[in-house]
Amino acid sequence: MNHSRRQFLRTGFSLGALLALRGTGRAADPGSPPTPAAPRGLLFDPADLPRLRANVQRPEFREFWAYMTGLDFAAEERFLNREISLRNHITDMSRAQVTAVRAAFMHLLYPDSRQLALARLALGRVLQYPHWDWLRDSQQRPVSIMRGAGTCIGLALVAEWLAADLTAAEQAAITRAMAEEGGPSCYRGLHDMTHHDEVGPWSIHPDEEGLSPFSVAHWPRILDDTNLRITCTAGLAAAACHLQGRHPDASLWLEATRASLRRYSAHLPQDGSFPEGVGYWDYTFTHYFITLEMLRRKYGVDDRGLLDFTAEARFALEMTMPTPAQPDGCISIGDSNTAAGSVPLSWIAREFRDSGAQELTLRPGAIRPAWTGLLTATWYDPSVPARLPANAPLDRRQALGIVLSRTGWTDRDCLVTLRSGGPTNHEHADRNSVIFTAHGERLLNDPVHAAYSTRDPKWLLRQTEAHTAVLIDGHGHIYHDGRDGTNSSAAQAVIQDYRIGPGWMTVTSDAADAYRRAGLPAQLVQRTLIYLKPDVLAIFDRVILDEARPVQARFQAFNDDGAGHVTADGPTFSIVRPLATLHARITTAGESAVAASRLALPEASGVYPYAELRSASAKEHALLTLCTAAPHGEAHGEITVQHEAGAWHIAGSHRGQKVRVKIATAEGVAVPVVTL
Fold first, then answer.
1. CA–CA separation, 177 vs 162, rounded Å?
2. Tell me, what's the pLDDT at 39?
3. CB atoms within 10 A of CB 521
4. Considering only CA atoms, which of 299, 311, 306 is closest in space to residue 29?
5. Cβ(45)–Cβ(13) under 8 Å?
6. What is the mean pLDDT of residues 246-260?
7. What is the DSSP string of 279-309?
8. What's the rounded Cα separation, in Å, for the pair 547 and 374?
9. According to DSSP H, which parts of 268-413 are helical?
10. How would CATH label the architecture of 395-633?
11. pLDDT tens across 561-585, in order?
């Protein structure tokens, strides 16, 4: 062991008056006071280094370790010396911060003078930023939410990991910046979010580069219960821990951090579901667990009892939607586009010996080639078995209003999802939209990678017309104009009926409120799903209007790889993917037609094909779309639909499954009566 490593072991984890956890290892009651104990590091102790070295060499970490060891020193040095803009926080400050943490971690594990020099260079450039985020409060003072909070975390880690290798001046510069910029600006962020009805508007620094113009005036209110509260909370926790015992406000910041965790946790549904979707679940709980770990290790505060984290892991499992082409695919409601990553899952697996979380941690694509993989390396415990929980339900109605029904958990299993419920941050205009995955393919799709800027044509992917959903006279339900970012709308849908049985699920949801809020004459916009596992799905839409209008039902195909094809023929349409096909037959109460089309986007933005059922102008519409799915090359069965006054009779067979369903509607009856 060289001198630098000896110095690290002796002094690297003692930057102030240190406290740590003393107790039984059981989660303490929320609000428990700190209990003094021995010094510990922010995320791990010196004795953990051999374990971390062993973890990063494991086969599961191959892609992450290739990323960490594949750093282009020349490119990073050129960027930091000549290309970085001190007015660009979105990309440039983030890149410098990540480089500092990445290089410092590598030097800590395997001492390397070049990594050390790069970490110090990146650190110096970060410290040159006159402010750490692009937001200001109503008094024009810096507010740290994203970049500033991340900078607090990064600098606290770098200061600790390179304690023996930084000069006294460098350490003093970090401490001064954390005291004057990092801690106060994160504290302002939490204060304004918590007291959003009492504070003035936020604004964007006028000299900021790389941002499309939009309003952040209402962000204190908008962000109060979103993922960015926890990002800010983690930044303040890092500042409080770094300055523990050395700054008069450190104890104030500690209490503000804990209060923020309590406030946010109280907002979340008790069933473990997460309003912003699984992609932001991953981001949120990465920062949440950084906060818990830092406070527990430095202050002896144990707030693991604030949430049921095993239920959170079940939510991460529920939202998986793997296919052979996308093993880390997810139910892409809202802005979610990949399943949960390994960072929060590895923490849950370790803390609660949760085998389901461990199984998800080790799934393909979960340990990602990004700097956050070092957190997985820190928390990963190979002694925890990796297996799915035997009692994981295949049918689920989440508190969010999302209904899921599946046949299993493999990449060839079938899954139907209905998006009902209310508004949330990062949502789309997607009420009553449907996703259907079968035999290894997304067949009825929900778009991924929608734009975050209204100037980008792919903002269209947020609208109802880009979903497997209903339009009234070509118009979708209420959304927002993006002036405040990708925040929630006012759209609501309500589940009116939900039932499950052996091999089947039915659900009915009404989204009329969301359409009325868009100025459309909707009394009822009701969708009923009848799912006969594994691969028969009936979609029954009833629309009642105040005045005669045409109605459309769209069925989106997945085509991100250019391999999705949609054709229409008379009252039928087909979606063809390489591994599976979907065939649909349309029956309506009035005049209708079916056509194949594509979203009105420039080809450079992608080709998004869909089938559209067009029901002629009327006050009342009843549309039945009977879908069957099959592996590519297999024939679809023969199923007939007979419509008589107030009743729809479905009979036949598909891939060996007999199908007999009656859907009955009657005046004064709120939901269709489904008989199987």
1. 17
2. 62
3. 15
4. 306
5. yes
6. 97
7. HHHHHHHHHHHHHHHHHHHHH----GGGS-H
8. 59
9. 278-299, 309-318, 342-352, 355-361, 373-379
10. Distorted Sandwich (2.70)
11. 999 999 999 999 999 999 999 999 9
